[in-house]
Amino acid sequence: MAAGGALCGSREGSAELWDWNQTWYTSTPRFTWCFESTVIAWIPCVYLWICFPFYYLYLRHRKNGYIRISHIFKAKMVLGFTLVILCFSNVFFALWEISHGIPRAPVFFISPAVVGITMILAMFLIHVERMMGIRSSGILLVFWLLSFVAAVVMFSSKVQHALERCPEASSSFLSKITYWWFSGLVWKGCQQSLCMHDLWTVRKEDSSEEIVAWAEREWKKYHSRTQQKMESATFKKGQKSGTGIAEAEETEVLLQSEHSSSGPLLKTFWSMFGTYFLLSTVCLVICDVFLFSIPKLLSLFLEFIEDQEAPGWHGYFYAFAMFLLACLQTLFEQRYMYMCLVLGLRLKTAVTGLVYRKILVMSNASRKAATVGEIVNLVSVDVQKLMDLIIYFNGTWLAPIRIIICFVFLWQLLGPSALASIAVFLFLLPLNFVITKKRSQFQEIQMKHKDERAKLTNAILSDIKVIKLYGWEKTFMEKVLGIRKQELQALKKSQILFSASLASFHSSTFLIAFVMFVVYTLVDTTHVLDAQKAFVSLTLINILNTAHSFLPFSINAAVQAKVSLNRLAAFLNLEELNLESSSRNTSDCVQASITIRNGTFCWSKENSCLRRIDLTVPQGSLLAVVGQVGAGKSSLLSALLGELEKTDGCVTMKGIAAYVPQQAWIQNASVEDNILFGKEMDETWFNRVIDACALQPDLECFPAGQKSEIGEKGINISGGQKQRVNLARAVYQKASIYLLDDPLSAVDAHVGQHIFEHVLGPNGLLKDKTRVLVTHTVNILPQVDNIVFLVDGTISEIGSYQELLQRNGAFAEFLHSHITAEEKAGTDFPAIGDARCTITSRNGPSQEKLSSDSSVKSSAMERETVPVSQDCPTAPATKGRLTKGEKTQHGRVNTLIYAAYLKAMGLPLCVYIILLFTCQQAVSFSRGYWLSVWTDDPVHNGTQQHTELRVAVFGALGVIQALGRFVSTAAVLLGGVLASHKLFVQLLRNVARSPMVFFEQTPIGNLLNRFSREMDAIDSVIPDKLKSLLGFLFNLLEIYLVIIVATPRAAMAIVPLTVLYAVIQHFYIITSCQLRRREAASRSPIYSHISETFQGSTVIRAYKDQERFILKNNFLVDENQRICFPGAVADRWLATNLEFLGNAIVLFAALFAAMGRTHLSPGTAGFSVSCALQITGVLNWMVRSWTEIENNIVSVERVREYLKTPKEAPWTLNGKLQDQVWPTAGRIEFRNYSLRYRPNLELALKRVSLTINGREKVRKAICFRRAMRCELCFAVIGSGPHSPCPTPGYSHLQA
Across 818-900, where does the E strand assignment appear? Predict the structure, then answer.
């Protein structure tokens, strides 16, 4: 296997020569890439070279004459030379790549060289055979057959590998621009549930390995430039400063101003993605060219309708021309959207990678400025804001250009009357800017409260065990709900302003048209408002309205992205650890393992925690560090690891260090993986470490032994077990130096003695290693080589145990006070026989038997069973598994989820909203119909009659519609806030009332995902999309009504096209929902990994294992992107197909209008075709809104998922405390009480009978095994951290 890795490298396919899982234990067997490139390719070569000497001797001694050169021989030689050229071209290409810095494994040039030389040998033998008169050769026949078989094997593997990749690269041009290459996945998603192997692997250019490395290079480049400019400016200001105080003040101000600058980060993203973004912008510009060509064609088409003498083919030509331009517009617009979405995914990968790598180098001061909740918000909410900016940014400059072009065209139609529209527009523009600015302020307030809530939620979930033991759930729920109330208040104000903004945007179409038509018709009575002027103007105004509405969205997206970019830049600019604080020296000339010379260290710049430290630790010695609490013992170890800021002195460590922190850090992985920590398994050494750390009895109790899974933060094992796993991890590493921060504090005294004797002491596994042991266990101090006694961050005394006692200094005083305190503590409790309690079990063991079980091994086995996953309790693959993965539903979202959301909004409000939208759309239809009647008014003496009446009614209908739109939009958005509040409270209560087994089995990332990303979708996305869906749905009904009334024959085309719409939408939503669910489930492991890394970054750095964790993060991000990319393409596939069908409806509406122009008035035709031109966008956005709701309603489904999980007993009954009479004395009674941790596990307490009366002390009475003491305490509390399940019996607690 090692040879395969050396020959094939580690980055090209599978570097292993053989993999049974890939070749034998699989449903789709194939060889590894390394095996195919070497063994398979070389088998024919080896065969021919072995046969060559014998066959050549045979040919030399057998001469049958001479065969003349034939066409077959020439063909053989040409094919042979072609194969040789191909082989050696691969060799030269691989060497060229290596010369240009592209890493290539040796097999890339060795294998084709071997094959090429063998081909030359085969050609030589063909020539020799011709010279010797041999017409057929068995040797070469076998060679060519072997070569053919080898080629077939390698070709089939390449085909299979290509099928796993995205088919876009191999698809045709037409398939690429229409996204038909995606149809296969859509069809598969409708037939079956999509699995990960159904999705394509991430393209190399989209992978974390490529993008994050690129982002790191660019960020370091621009960040260093900014730092250099800042230092230069600081130096200049310092020279101009008159005093040192002024200089310091100016420097500090400059640092503060530069600290949160997002300029370098923005330059980083632009240098990476700027070119690709500009290409997408070109597509959008071309799309706009076709967009403005359509109104010109509409104008010509209406002229044709009005001119009865025009040839009929003109109408058909204009109809097909509009269809063609609309299709081209669709293709370029969707290409723009596709490129933006791909760019957004790459940006997301880059940001996540930069944030994760920042976590690994954050200093201690920086860790105070950022929490896990805030970091999760950075890679979820803030990244989404940046992705939105990519789509909307071009609107900030392209929308004004669209508006100007619209005004130019309107001038051509209506002359100077178009200037009135500019006045209206200029009136609305500052109003919209004011609203947008005010709304952004509320959004900043909302984000601030959201961060506070995320921080508090993360703290609660991290310490849920303590909160449940104290019964503080309601108190913390009230705190969270208080912050949530402030967050929703800001959201509510923001939504009201958003409703006003939308109403003004949509009313701008009416206002501009109304003012222009009024000025045009009333200023000069000879101005006739005909169908061409009115409906072409309306088409242009619709484009204007789109640009007008797109502009504030773009500005809003830019503002939000600016806030997110500043937040991200502030995080990335946080102070990092100085990796040079502690130097590593592997030179043999250095005798001491650890040396500190005049070291002064601090956690932050405010004050020093260690001062004037001079310390030398000889190689292989055991140094104990003791002192009072807060003396700086843990800080000393942190200083050795480089975790503290070194202000003076130097630190040198010889060799590799292993670190055991005081607070054990445990990964959500198996016991074995926690101990190996990325190292290869050595069974002999592993078993020795397990025995020495007293873990063997624990492993015997776990259902899957060393394969049993430990929950997040070790939630399902005791503190002693955590610390022993932590210690075992360090011992297994076989390091040179061991830094041990009080590893014996969490274990019993006899277990600690066992660990000291077998691991730390003079005869332990680490006897030849350098050990720095921080401890409060004074009885082991005589066995250490040297002792360092710290007082207030300085070394007070240093020497051996006897030397320090003889000095009778601070250490002797500390030792005397410590021993005295222990003696006093020991006399505070009565003897065991004094406690009046009886303990019996089903087997009736005596108390003496329980006490005798407290041997080293038995006591070290703190009985804490790791539960088996309830999903597959008997499956060998899941035996010992604790945490449950994210559940993903299949198919479409259940109707009950929609009902639950509408119920949260309130059914009366839902009915009110439907009525509002119906009335508003009826008014809109009346306004359009009134305009068509106005344009059909006959002209007498160059003027139209009843113009004032037409203007008044048209204006009144527009005002009523604007008010209706504001009220209906506000009702939907505020209803969404109400539903979000109810669902959040429901989620919080469901999680808070869940037993501890729920938190053991549910990774914290899953819960943080529910409280952050899913609630963000419920807060903002679902109400916005629901508002859009209702608006577009009623608009669609109006358009259908107009087209069918104007041209009834168009129903023949509309009905089948609508059915086709429904079919496409049906196929899309089933696949899209599955992708959305899988994408949501794939985010949680990323958040869990970030949280785990943040908590254990010190340990990761101590073991120099950052690269492995970075690779895991890359893998998790790539798995998420593997789902996100098909989701993005699915949107483009849907939009392209829907817009093509919408364009077809425009075509049929125009064709039928051209056919019936003899009995169709120009006003009706203009009304029909102008509405038909809107149907493409309306249908597209309606289905897109519907799809977005279906995709995001999954958030409601996931939030409500915890409704069905088991809950604890109610905290109160009928709003009253369960015990009405306050007890006067404390009393605990158990009668025949049995208890297990959860169903399907054995009993932890068996038929216990126990009575403890008031004022009785029971500490020494509970003298049996430590785990049983815990179990009994949890039974007394009633809600322990392991959620014990009582069986029939009786317990009574009176306190």
Answer: none
